[in-house]
Write a structure and sequence with these properties.
The protein is of the alpha+beta class and 220 residues long. Among the domains are: 37 residues, no CATH class; 55 residues, no CATH class; 57 residues, no CATH class. It contains 1 helix and 12 strands; from the N terminus they run αββββββββββββ.
C-alpha cells in the first residue's frame, strides 16, 4: 500500500515538472516571436532605431510611409515590390497600385499603362476583359459582338448580351426574336411547337411546326 502511495506521489511530481518545462519552452518561443515582429528580413521596420537588424535597410512605400519592410536592398518596380518613388513606375507588365507593383494586362487584372491589355482584351472600367463574347464588353469594331455568332449576341450598355432566343430580351433590330420564338411582354418565348403559342406570321413564314395547326392561338 505504501509502495502504491509513493508511486502516485512520484507521478504527480514528475507531471508537474514536465508541465512547467513545457510552459517555459512555450514562453521562450513566444518571447522570440515577439522580439522578431519587426526589424528582420521581410518584416516591418521597427519604430525606433535601428529600424532593421543585421545591417539591412528599411524600405518604405512611396505612397504610405507606414508600410515598410526590411531587406538587404530596396528594389523598386518589381512584382510585389514598392513602386519607384520618382514617378510611381513599375517594370513592364506591372502597374502601381497603392504604392506596390502588381501584375496587369491579363483577363480580370487591372489595365496597364495607357489602358493597355494583353492580346485582344479590352480595358473597361480599369480592368482587362474579353470583348465580343457573351458577358464581355463590346469590341471597338463595326460588329462589336461578333466572336460568338452562334449565340446571337447584341451590344447593349457596352456588354454583349444574348437576344432573340427563348427567355432572353428581344433584339434591337429585326427580327426581334429568332425563328421559333415569339415576342411576349418584352421577352422572346418559344412558339410553333405542340402546346406552344402560334408563331407570328409577320415575323416568320409559319404558325406551327410539322402537321400542327393553330387553334385559339396555340399549336395542337
Amino acid at each position: 500500500m505504501k509502495y502504491i502511495f509513493f508511486l502516485f506521489i512520484s507521478i504527480f511530481v514528475l507531471t508537474g515538472c514536465l508541465s512547467r518545462q513545457v510552459k517555459e519552452v512555450a514562453d521562450w518561443e513566444d518571447e522570440v516571436l515577439i522580439a522578431e515582429e519587426c526589424g528582420v528580413d521581410g518584416l516591418i521596420c521597427c519604430a525606433s532605431d535601428p529600424k532593421c537588424k543585421y545591417g539591412q535597410v528599411c524600405c518604405v512605400n512611396p505612397t504610405n510611409d507606414k508600410k515598410t519592410y526590411c531587406a538587404e536592398e530596396c528594389v523598386c518596380g518589381e512584382l510585389n515590390k514598392f513602386c519607384c518613388s520618382d514617378n510611381l513606375s513599375c517594370n513592364e507588365g506591372l502597374v502601381c497600385l497603392e504604392g506596390s507593383c502588381i501584375s496587369c494586362g491579363k483577363d480580370g487584372e487591372f489595365c496597364c499603362g495607357n489602358n493597355s491589355c494583353e492580346g485582344d482584351l479590352l480595358c473597361s472600367g480599369g480592368v482587362c476583359r474579353p470583348c465580343g463574347v457573351e458577358g464581355g464588353v463590346c469590341c471597338v469594331e463595326e460588329d462589336p459582338c461578333s466572336k460568338e455568332k452562334e449565340k446571337n449576341l447584341e451590344c447593349a450598355n457596352n456588354i454583349c448580351e444574348i437576344c432573340g432566343t427563348a427567355g432572353n430580351r428581344p433584339c434591337a433590330t429585326q427580327p426581334v426574336c429568332n425563328v421559333g420564338n415569339l415576342l411576349n411582354n418584352n421577352s422572346c418565348i418559344p412558339c410553333g411547337k405542340a402546346n406552344n403559342p402560334c408563331c407570328n406570321q409577320e415575323e416568320s413564314d409559319y404558325e406551327c411546326e410539322n402537321n400542327l395547326k393553330c387553334d385559339l392561338g396555340f399549336c395542337n
